[in-house]
Write a structure and sequence with these properties.
Helix content: 25-40%
Oligomer: single chain
Number of strands: 16
Strand content: 15-25%
Shape: globular
Number of helices: 19
Radius of gyration: 22 Å
Largest sheet: 8 strands, antiparallel
Distance between the termini: 22 Å
């Protein structure tokens, strides 16, 4: 703990310095699973990249005490050895505990346990003033729940206690094919109501071809049972495998069951980033088959894909959004996607948002503290859009407007195209701003500042100089952006930190 206390003291000292100078800062983690452009520079960051240790895993109390930059795979490596697993494990190995807490994250067990933040007992946090304090669901609950969705705009989380549960060796996964979204909703609601199911999600390959995946923990593969693996280079991508299973069920109706090692199940979407890496094959006009996937496997893990994406800037021309839709509006939303976007596959994940604890009506999602908050069905909408920047923005804004019209909620790890007024129509500004005032964080960037996309500002920069204009033309030539992203993924180096002039920096100076 001495090493941890020293690291936190350094974070607090740096924060205090920036507070006294009233410099708005951003938190530098060293990596990210956000698709947003990084605005971090050496002169405006608080560096937490070394806070990446698991300090304790307690088998008796079923908790883990971890620093915020501990990744999901690092946490699982410690807990599975003791026969334990977090209640909610995010699907990509590189997602960190701190990022999952601060960013309203969920996965296929969230129908039961809620978002990842609901599975945290308490946090240690350095406030914007440099003060070190603790918060939980009972001690300073306003700070706890406010920080849970604040993306670091209330302070810097430096330690968390994660709830665990007993693990077993395998997930017994059953696939069921349904013909439309209405039946998918009925099936998902029925499956999430069963006490025996621990994991539930679905992949919609088309509006009339949806595979429901329900999982239960087991310790053995029964005689005659079939094991499947998804993390080795020669294994199929999970979604490719599910598509094959779907075709089998179309030929021979009936559910299919397989047994997947628990770590393979929890990170089943890592290789290929669900299915988004397939768009890279299309971009580079590369055959998509088991041979090319095997050869290119080192580039097909999400840690590498995020690096390439950030350096290439290609996410500006893709739909990368997760949105929660009320169950009774899911069919309407699917019809709209068919008409306006035609983006498939879609990921479907039931989400429980209602917070069980008292005094939880705080922060950006203060309404989640209400007892009548309905469950939502998360839609992962990820696919190519127009390579005209303005048209891609229009399509993203159309999605945001449709989600609002249907009474849904958009999650903020990705680009946000709202105007500021539109943004605060969807999130609780009164509660959020009150916390910013109470905890002296008003000088920090707001959540809106962090997630907004300002195309007018982007175009103004291009018009400001011939150099910027020529660079914009250069990067518009296919496939230069993609090649640069691949090159940077190969050579490594920092991909988030920017120099004051906007160039990427490969080194990080002590702050």
């Amino acid at each position: 703990m001495d090493v941890h206390h020293d690291a936190v003291a350094s974070v607090a000292a740096r924060t205090r310095q920036l507070y006294e100078e009233k410099i708005p800062f951003r938190i530098y983690h060293g990596a990210t699973n956000s698709t947003r452009r990084s605005q971090r520079r050496q002169d405006n960051i608080v560096d937490t990249s070394k806070l990446d240790h698991v300090l304790e895993v307690n088998k008796q109390t079923k908790i883990a005490v971890v620093e915020p930059n501990v990744s999901m795979d690092a946490l699982l490596e410690k807990t599975v050895k003791l026969g334990l697993v977090p209640l909610v494990v995010l699907e990509f190995p590189g997602i960190t505990v701190g990022g999952a807490f601060c960013g309203t994250s969920g996965e296929s067990s969230s129908f039961r346990y809620g978002a990842f933040d609901a599975t945290i007992n308490w946090i240690e946090i350095v406030l914007a003033t440099g003060e070190i304090t603790h918060a939980s669901k009972t001690e300073k609950p306003d700070l706890f729940w406010g920080a849970a969705s604040a993306f670091g705009t209330l302070g810097t989380v430096t330690l968390l206690e994660v709830q665990l549960r007993d693990a077993q060796k395998y997930v017994r996964l059953t696939y069921t094919l349904v013909p439309n979204m209405s039946e998918a909703v009925d099936t998902l609601q029925a499956e999430t109501a069963k006490d025996t199911n621990e994991y539930v999600d679905a992949i919609a390959f088309a509006s009339n071809s949806i595979v429901i995946c329900t999982g239960r923990l087991v310790n053995e593969v029964p005689e005659g049972g079939q094991s499947r693996y998804f993390t080795r280079s020669w294994d199929p991508w999970f979604y490719v495998h599910v598509e094959r299973v779907k075709k089998k069920m179309q030929r021979h109706p009936g559910a299919i069951t397989e047994f997947i090692p628990i770590v393979d199940y929890l990170f089943r979407y890592d290789r290929g980033g669900f299915w988004t890496a397939r768009y890279a094959f299309k971009y580079f006009i590369t055959p998509f088959n088991r041979i090319t996937r095997f050869i290119l496997n080192p580039f097909m893990h999400t840690r590498v894909m995020y690096r390439a994406m950030h350096k290439s800037g290609l996410s500006d021309f893709y739909m990368v959004q997760d949105v929660g839709i009320p169950y009774d509006k899911a069919s309407d939303f699917t019809s709209w996607i068919n008409l306006e976007l035609k983006v498939y596959p879609l990921w479907l994940c039931p989400l429980r948002l209602r917070r069980n604890s008292l005094k939880s009506h705080y922060g950006l999602h203060a309404e989640f503290g209400n007892s009548n908050v309905p469950d939502l069905l998360n839609f992962g909408v990820w696919g190519p859009l127009s390579f005209n920047r303005r048209e891609a923005v229009r399509q993203n804004r159309a999605l945001e407007q449709k989600v609002q019209e249907l009474g849904g909620k958009k999650w903020l790890y990705a680009h946000a195209y709202y105007t500021e007024d539109e943004f605060w129509e969807n999130y609780d500004r009164k509660s959020y701003d009150a916390l910013r005032v109470k905890y002296s964080a008003t000088h920090l960037p707001s959540v809106y500042d962090k997630v907004k996309v300002d195309v007018d500002a982007e175009e103004a920069v291009i018009r400001a100089s011939w150099t910027a204009w020529l660079l914009a033309i250069f990067w518009s030539i296919w496939p230069l952006r993609g090649l640069y992203g691949v090159y940077m993924a190969i050579v490594g180096g920092d991909y988030l930190l920017q120099k004051p002039n906007g160039k990427s920096s490969g080194k990080l100076k002590a702050g």
